[in-house]
Each structure stands twice: as C-alpha cells, then as structure tokens.
Design a protein that fits this description.
- Keywords: DNA-binding, Transcription, Transcription regulation.
- This is Helix-turn-helix domain-containing protein.
- Pfam families: HTH_20.
- The protein has helices at about 20-25, 35-45, 55-60, 65-70, 70-80, 100-110, 115-125, 135, 140-160, 165-190, 255-260, 265-270, 270-280, 285-295, 295-310, 330-335; strands at about 10-15, 25-30, 195-200, 205-210, 210-215, 220-225, 235, 245-250, 285, 315-320, 320-325.
- Mean pLDDT is about 85; it is low at about 335-340.
- The chain has a 4-stranded mixed beta sheet with strand order 3-4-1-5.
- The longest helix has 30 residues, at about 165-190.
- The chain has about 350 residues and is of the alpha/beta class.
- Helix 5 (about 70-80) crosses helix 9 and helix 6 (about 100-110) runs antiparallel to helix 9.
- The protein is globular, with a radius of gyration of 21 Å.
- The protein is built from 16 helices and 11 strands.
- It has 2 domains: about 10-250, no CATH class; about 265-335, Winged helix-like DNA-binding domain superfamily/Winged helix DNA-binding domain (Arc Repressor Mutant, subunit A), CATH 1.10.10.10.
C-alpha cells in the first residue's frame, strides 16, 4: 500500500468505509501526535510556496543556529526515510505516539525486525536508500538507538519549542470539532470538516494524492488534529494497523494575535502576497490581479494559491474566469484584528 507523503494537493481519493459499529467507535484526539508532527515539519520546510501562517515558525527556527545544528541528523534521517513520494514506513508513526513522545519513541525502538525489513524494502521500491539504512532494516540495536536519538534531538529543536503555540491552535480546533460532535453526532462532526472531508454514507472521502480504500471493519477511526499538516489528511499505509486519520486544523486557528503583533503584514508574507491581499479588498480575477499589480498571471495564480491555503481568500469559478475574494479571516488580518479564540 502507498499513501501521499508530500502533503500537497491531491489527484486521487481516499475512501474510508464505515460499518454501523464503526460510527460508535469514532474518537477525536485532543492534541497532535508528536511523531506525526515531527515528520510533517519536514514537509513544511520543503514547501516551495510557504504558507504565511507558518512564517513565525520558519523565522524562529532559522534564527537559532543551535537549533539548526541539533536537528541536522534527524533532518537527514527523515529526508531519507520520508521522501517526497508515494510511501514512507508506518513504523515511524506508531500508534503509541498518541500517549506522547516518549511512548512513541519506545514503541519505535521495539518495532519487530520483520516489520522493519518489510517496510524499508517497500520504501526501497520507490527510491534508492543509502547503506546506513540497512542496519535499521536488520533491527540493529545500535542503529535503532542512534535513530531514536536523532529523532529526539530533531523534535526538541523543531517541534517542542512551539508546543504552546501549536497546542493553543489545536485546542481551539478540537473545541470546535467537539461541539459539532456533541450537537450533531458523528454526521455533524463529519459535516463540520467540509470541504476537507465529504461524508457520503457509509463512506468518508477526502482528496488524496492516490486512490486508496480503507475498510474499517468495526475498528472505528481515530481523528488526530495536526498543526503542521496542510491541505490534505494523511493515514497509514498498512490497512491492518489501527485506523487513524491525521487532519490539518482549520487555518483560522493558526493565525494568532502574537504573529501579527511581531511584524507587519509585508514582513509576514512578503511584499507581493501582501499586495495581492490588499488588492483583494475588492474581488478580482487572476487576470485582473496580474494587471493591477503588474505581475504575470502565473505569479498571481501562485500567490492566490498560497493565500487560499492559508485561509485568507476564497476562490471560485465565475464563467471562464477564476474569482478571488477575501475570507473573514483575510479581512480581519488586513484590519489588524486577527484574534481568534
């Protein structure tokens, strides 16, 4: 089995098939899984067009040479084992991670050798692996311990310092999801995820890089919020493992007041994107934006894509044209009132 690991736009569909008993076994995690978050930071650092919502994190990370040095070995390991492609090993995100980093890393160290071998062999079908991966695949204790240390150091540099920021954002998202569940049941919960998720009983669908079916078979589904996940959810490659869906929190929760107080809008998102956002004080098409700002239509399209993914604008087709409008969040940010609970 494969899955999308670039966490970008999708071309396929993930279909999660529910039985009646699965609907009573849907659980909603109240905080991110630290191992998933660690992996997802690598995707964010590889993004060509970086979301302005993550700009304070980018800047803090690169402004600290000690942090950059500390995360170097883990970054090398993750870039090898979690490449941009259709697969990465499930042993890197064990179910026990929901109990915290220590539980997750302990479970990772205890991964049975046959599973390490099988999953790394699967990865090798998609990319050439360096020689240092072989001892991991063979279950070498020193190699696994070295991997665990590298991942721990990476987490301490790239994820742990931002736990309060990410925690407040995911807590706000969880509160919103929990209200939907309490007032509307599972169907209300799923409806609140639209358009990210589409509930077509008895199947829950989401855009995915590949076409994939996940049969729950009475096991239920654990929904886990993620601060660093963007655009599309992720799930495990092996359908026999406990079903989990890592979903990106609503973008409005990532915009915290402290981010806009620290810097002006141009510094936060760059002069061109700031200009695009200001220009959309009135709705405009991509062509109109390009003319107003004297940039190419392709550049205008790239900027609107990033702003849309940041939750600042909405885009819809108006005949042959694509029309962009500010969201309430985009308007609030322009007015300096982007203060969300």
């Amino acid at each position: 089995m494969t899955r999308p690991v670039n966490n970008g736009g999708g071309m396929g569909t993930l279909r999660i098939h529910f039985h009646a008993e699965d609907l009573t076994r849907v659980t909603l995690a109240d905080e991110p899984d630290p191992l998933w978050e660690m992996i997802l930071t690598r995707f964010r650092l590889r993004d060509r067009a970086r979301s302005p919502a993550f700009q304070p994190w980018y800047e803090d990370l690169h402004a600290d040479p000690a942090a950059t040095s500390r995360m170097r070995r883990g970054a090398r390991l993750l870039d090898t084992l979690v490449p941009a492609g259709p697969y990465f090993p499930d042993f890197l995100t064990p179910y026990e991670g929901h109990r915290g980093l220590e539980s997750g890393l302990t479970a990772l160290l205890r991964t049975p050798r046959p599973r390490l071998t099988a999953e790394l062999r699967q990865l090798a079908r998609h990319r050439n692996l360096p020689g240092w991966v072989r001892p991991i695949a063979e279950g070498s204790a020193p190699a696994l311990t070295s991997m665990e240390t590298a991942l721990r150091d990476y987490h301490q540099a790239a994820v742990a310092p931002y736990r309060e920021l990410a925690g407040s954002a995911t807590a706000a998202d969880h509160a919103s999801r929990a209200r939907a569940l309490l007032t509307g049941g599972v169907e209300g919960l799923f409806a609140g995820f639209a358009p990210l998720l589409r509930w077509r009983p008895p199947v829950l669908e989401t855009e995915y890089v590949i076409d994939q079916d996940l049969i729950l078979g009475g096991r239920g589904l654990r929904l886990v919020p993620s601060y660093f996940c963007l655009r599309t959810p992720l799930t495990l490659a092996d359908p026999d493992l406990p079903p989990v869906l890592i979903y990106p929190i609503d973008q409005r929760h990532r915009w915290r007041p402290e981010a806009t107080r620290r810097t002006n809008l141009t510094a936060l998102m760059g002069a061109n994107r700031s200009a695009v956002l200001h220009a959309l004080g009135r709705s405009a098409t991509t062509t109109q934006l390009a003319r107003m700002l004297r940039i190419s239509p392709a550049a205008a399209s790239r900027h609107t894509t990033v702003l849309r993914e940041a939750g600042l604008i909405d885009t819809h087709r108006d005949g042959p044209a694509v029309l962009h409008t500010l969201t309430s969040l985009g308007t609030a940010l322009l007015e300096g009132t982007a203060d969300h609970p």
